[in-house]
Request: fold
Amino acid sequence: MRILSIDYGKKRTGIAVTDPLQIIANGLVTVATPELFAFVEQYIQKEQVERIIIGKPTQPNGQPSENLARVENFFNRWRKAHPEVPIEYYDERFTSVLAHRAMIEGGVKKKTRRENKGLVDEISATIILQDYLESRR
Reply:
């Protein structure tokens, strides 16, 4: 079964998923946040998902960020609607910075980075998921 991760944003949300053996995380897609719930519901109908990991937005000092209330709304809605697929928080501090750095080091051109903002969200979701996998080992 796969593990799915979510980097929840106000406008766009990045999604990543593991392979069925849960060895490696891969970026899946970036979706418009209002479409997120339906997208994840459709995805779990096609693929076996063991759990969902959602980035918990906190500031570097550990205080909640302004996005936390939106994330909590999604988290609680999911738990109520789909108790069969557990959802849990994972610290997402610095994932956007790491995603930008990965894009630069990977040779993604500045124009592409500027035009494809969703790529950062997808990479951030991948970093969250890979960190989660490594924390379990």
User: Anything to note?
Assistant: The chain has a mean pLDDT of 88. The beta strands are 2-7, 12-18, 25-32, 49-56, 87-91. DSSP finds five helices and five strands in the chain.
